[in-house]
Inverse folding.
């Protein structure tokens, strides 16, 4: 008589992982922590994710030796691990893309996110509409030099050569023998309600001071005079028929040009000034025949968080300012390629090991007839932690080699190497 085939049934746990999952189970919200990709009606629901979760049960069953030893987990544990692996992959990839996109997206529109990390509400919809339905985390941004433009605008404003702040002008009457004028006080008293900008007595920054001379002076004391202008009798139609002309060296022409430029900034003006804390001091002291009015240009100082709507262009202080406000949602499962999906399988398996280690770690041994059975909880936990760390580092290292900056550097190095190689390739010989 042949020996009977024994099929012993484990008694340690009533929970044993089956050889495969089912689509019905994989679509049930109860089997997931979030259900971002598995709940019908959710923005990122995907049939392929559900099928992938089902396949992950079979993959886990085989990898952990379910054919030989019982695995004390449910299919729901595997589904949860699979979902977490997809979210972890999305998280790491989004951080990588943030490094690429942030410099060009500073000040751009941000969004409102729900508890799952998806764009929601009116802000989210507005952003989606603005981008014609495109997902920002999947888009390649145009390189805008946004940060450097913002820095340049600040320097330009201070240097009075441009910028985005509105430059305003005002005037005040000059009083004989009065040298000092409080420009801040003049503005506060006379323009306190203008555009609401000075209603709270905001501090202004004076950029330029000037005055107008009587028109009669422009002919005789303006910048038309210069070295040898009349003596040379070569300009302005002031020479007669019997005029003689002098050939002069180039250095004298240069001297004339320098004198012309110097006249604009020094000789044309009878006055100089200095500004200290928006208080203007005029030199020399005004007299009766001095200009009646002086003009000055200024900007209203605002804090760095205020929008400057008066400039005609939105300053975008309320947009993207760092990685946290980038409008990056969870990456759709359908947009993860084969490279990403294999990483997800491996990471989900590692998470499953961690779960199994936690389950088996509740008891260090299980009594069996005549002995105790030692469980491998510590080994599973150690393996899981090491594998998760290695998988994260592997993905991050790969992505770091593929930043836009690194791609440019690699292509530049390759081009240099090609050019270097071409130096040693003989020129082609024409055969007739």
């Amino acid at each position: 008589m042949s020996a009977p085939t024994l099929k012993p049934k484990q008694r340690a746990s009533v929970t044993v992982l089956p050889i495969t999952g089912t689509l019905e189970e994989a679509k049930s919200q109860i089997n997931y922590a979030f259900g971002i990709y598995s709940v019908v009606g959710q923005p990122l629901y995907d049939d392929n994710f559900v099928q992938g979760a089902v396949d992950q049960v079979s993959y886990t069953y085989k990898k952990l030796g379910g054919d030989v030893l019982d695995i004390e987990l449910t299919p729901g544990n595997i589904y949860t691990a699979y979902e977490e692996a997809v979210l972890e992959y999305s998280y790491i990839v989004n951080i990588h893309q943030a490094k690429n996109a942030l410099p060009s997206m500073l000040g751009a529109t941000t969004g409102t996110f729900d508890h799952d990390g998806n764009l929601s509400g009116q802000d989210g919809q507005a952003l989606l509409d603005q981008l014609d339905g495109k997902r920002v985390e999947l888009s390649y941004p145009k390189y805008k030099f946004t940060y450097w433009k913002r820095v340049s605008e600040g320097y330009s404003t201070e240097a009075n050569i441009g910028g985005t702040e509105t430059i305003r002008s005002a005037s005040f009457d000059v009083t004989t023998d009065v040298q000092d004028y409080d420009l801040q006080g003049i503005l506060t008293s006379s323009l306190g309600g203008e555009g609401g900008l000075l209603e709270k007595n905001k501090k202004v920054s004076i950029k330029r001071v000037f005055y107008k001379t009587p028109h009669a002076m422009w002919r005789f004391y303006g910048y038309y005079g210069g070295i040898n202008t009349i003596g040379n009798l070569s300009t302005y139609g002031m020479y007669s028929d019997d005029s003689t002309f002098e050939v002069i060296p180039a250095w004298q022409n240069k001297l004339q040009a320098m004198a012309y430029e110097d006249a604009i900034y020094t000789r044309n003006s009878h006055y100089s000034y200095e500004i200290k804390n928006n208080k203007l001091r005029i030199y020399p002291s005004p007299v009766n025949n001095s200009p009646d009015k002086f003009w000055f240009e200024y900007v209203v100082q605002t804090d760095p968080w205020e929008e400057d709507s008066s400039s005609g262009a939105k300053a975008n202080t309320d947009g993207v300012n760092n990685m946290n406000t980038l409008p990056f949602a969870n990456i759709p499962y359908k947009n993860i390629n084969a490279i990403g999906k294999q990483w997800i399988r491996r990471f989900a398996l590692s998470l499953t090991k961690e779960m199994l280690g936690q389950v088996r770690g509740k008891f260090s041994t299980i009594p069996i007839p005549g002995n105790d059975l030692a469980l491998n909880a510590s080994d599973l936990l150690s393996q899981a932690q090491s594998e998760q760390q290695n998988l994260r580092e592997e993905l991050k290292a790969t992505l770091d080699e593929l930043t836009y900056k690194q791609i440019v550097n690699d292509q530049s190095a390759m081009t240099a190497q090609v050019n270097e190689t071409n130096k040693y390739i003989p020129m082609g010989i024409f055969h007739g």
Notes: The longest helix spans residues 75-105. Residues 165-310 form one domain. The first strand starts at residue 168 and ends at 173.
